[in-house]
Design a protein that fits this description.
about 190 residues; mainly alpha; 11 helices; about 0% strand; elongated
């Protein structure tokens, strides 16, 4: 017997709001595989699902739905998803915050300005995640443009991320310090 999400994904009515809403609801029900199937079905719908997914990200009481919504927006991409993902950085659930950063990284270069903004967040974990996402996007851009100097991450991009002035191990997230040194200094 096919799951509800598989049946819904194959129906032609998927582009109507009721089918999309049912898939969003399914993102928070059942086991992880069923949730993932629902998210993939939403992604396959594409642009028609973006606005309802944004509403779920910002307004659902279920943190699993918000998490899956952020994931779907990252995979669908597009500039409409960026601002709601930035708003999700203030979510009360850390897992949703992290998935929003990952989604912005999935969107890539169009989300760079928003990630730079997130790197100024008061939450040190958000700053670190945003800085890491910027570095990953820059590395991907460099690799796509065949500008790599070597396979090592720190050598990939000619515009290197500044490293912490204290430990010199992690990228700077605030005032010249990395996530570890910022935390110890109370910055």
């Amino acid at each position: 017997m096919e799951s509800v999400t598989k049946k819904l994904a194959h129906e032609e009515k998927m582009h109507d709001l009721s089918g999309i809403e049912e898939l969003i609801k399914s993102c928070g029900e059942g086991n992880g595989l069923a949730q993932q199937e629902a998210r993939i079905a939403l992604e396959n719908i594409g642009e028609a699902a973006v606005e309802p997914i944004i509403q779920a990200l910002l307004h659902s009481e279920n943190p699993i739905i918000r998490w899956r919504a952020a994931e779907a927006l990252g995979h669908i991409g597009g500039p409409r998803a960026i601002e709601p993902l930035i708003q999700a950085l203030a979510d009360k659930e850390t897992s949703v915050q992290w998935r929003a950063i990952e989604a912005l990284a999935d969107i890539g270069e169009p989300a760079m300005d928003s990630l730079y903004f997130a790197a100024e967040n008061e939450n040190v974990e958000i700053r670190w995640g945003a800085t890491r996402a910027v570095k990953d996007i820059k590395a991907k851009i460099c690799m796509e443009e065949n500008k790599c100097l070597s396979a090592k991450m720190e050598d990939i991009c000619s515009e290197k991320i500044e490293m912490c002035s204290v430990c010199k191990k992690y990228p700077v997230v605030n005032f010249g310090y990395c996530i570890e040194c910022s935390g110890r200094r109370g910055i």
